[in-house]
Amino acid sequence: MLIVLLLVLLSVITPFGRASGIVASSTPSVSADVVELDASELSDGLVGLLPDIGQIYRTAVAYPLQKARGDITDPELLEFYDGYLQAIGFAPEP
């Protein structure tokens, strides 16, 4: 009985929606005032909004290593550690 009522309700609503223009058209309308942007200009603008992920990564990896350097008191170990940081590309900046 419930299914019959749902079918009747849908048959009443569906034609009404189409007749009154509730259903959206498949093609969007674009006004003539829209200015087309060059693709390179648009991409340059978007690239400027992105953060430098490489710099964020380098800082996140190098920071703990450089902070640990401050706790080393032995001069030989400090020299080895500085060489290690330089070899892996995370030497402290002067």
Task: Explain the overall architecture.
The structure is a single chain. By secondary structure, the chain is mainly α. The chain has a domain at 53-94. The protein has helices at 2-19, 39-49, 53-69, 75-87. It is elongated and about 90 Å long. The termini are far apart.
Helix and strand topology:
Blueprint: H1 2-19, H2 39-49, H3 53-69, H4 75-87
Ends distance:
82 Å
How would a textbook summarize the main sheet? none
Rg value: 32 Å
Helix fraction, binned, reads 55-70%
Apparent shape: elongated
Count, helices? 4
What is the beta-strand fraction?
under 5%
Overall SS class: mainly alpha
Task: Write a concise synopsis of the structure shown.
The chain is mainly α. The protein is 63% helix and 0% strand.
